[in-house]
Amino acid sequence: MSHFIFLTATLLILVQPTIAQKIYATNKGTASFFSKAPIADVDARNTKVRVRLNTGNQELTFDIKMADFQFKSAKMGRDARKNYIEIDQYPKASFRGKITTDINYTKPGTYPATATGKLEIHGTEKDVTEKGTVTVGKGKIRLASELNVQLKDYNIKTPKILGKEMTEEKVKVMIAATLEVQ
């Protein structure tokens, strides 16, 4: 009987990390950005963001194709892609990091979270720490965060019209994704 208990305990110890470590992902995350402007606000949305979360080690990645951003104005989109985002030279943005907050991925609920890692935009990589929420549901995890990005930190020129800056130096970026177990 003691061999059975020992074998069962050993199996539970070996299996537990595998149960806790799951990969959640989507190719339909959303990234949007907004900046107030005197003539027309800059507002764009991308609904094709690739997001991956490993709940075992809390590794989190976002991959964003800059060409997939849709602007409210077609002309603004063309100008932004060519003159500011420069998608021919910098076709993607990404985040590689970890959620540093302890999250119980087996218990449904909404948890405040912090992620730390490297954010790359416009060919420039910066260390960042951002706050957001992780909502655990049945077979799904929803991630959401809102952050301010300084254009100059990523070597992006501030758009100008008639010599006047068209946007604020800070751009509000919103990220949201509902991930499913893979």
What does the model show?
- With 182 residues, the chain is α+β, with helices and mostly antiparallel strands.
- The chain has one domain: Lipid/polyisoprenoid-binding, YceI-like (Lipocalin, Beta Barrel), CATH 2.40.128.110.
- 16% of the residues lie in helices and 53% in strands.
- The chain contains two helices and eleven strands; from the N terminus they run αββββαβββββββ.
- The strands form two sheets. Strands 1-2-3-5-6-7-8-11 form an eight-stranded antiparallel β-barrel. The chain has a two-stranded antiparallel ribbon with strand order 9-10.
- The longest helix has 19 residues, at 2-20.
- 20% of the residues are buried.
CATH architecture: Beta Barrel
Counting DSSP H or I runs of 4 or more residues, the number of helices is 2
Order of helices and strands: HEEEEHEEEEEEE
Say what the CATH topology is. Lipocalin
Q: Which stretches of 5+ consecutive residues score pLDDT under 50?
A: 1-19
Tell me the total number of β-strands: 11
Q: What is the share of helical residues?
A: 10-25%
Summarize it:
The protein is of the alpha+beta class and 182 residues long. It is 16% helix and 53% strand.
Break the fold down into its secondary structure elements and pairings:
Elements: H1 2-20, E1 23-35, E2 42-54, E3 59-65, E4 70-71, H2 74-84, E5 92-99, E6 109-121, E7 124-136, E8 140-150, E9 160-161, E10 164-165, E11 170-181
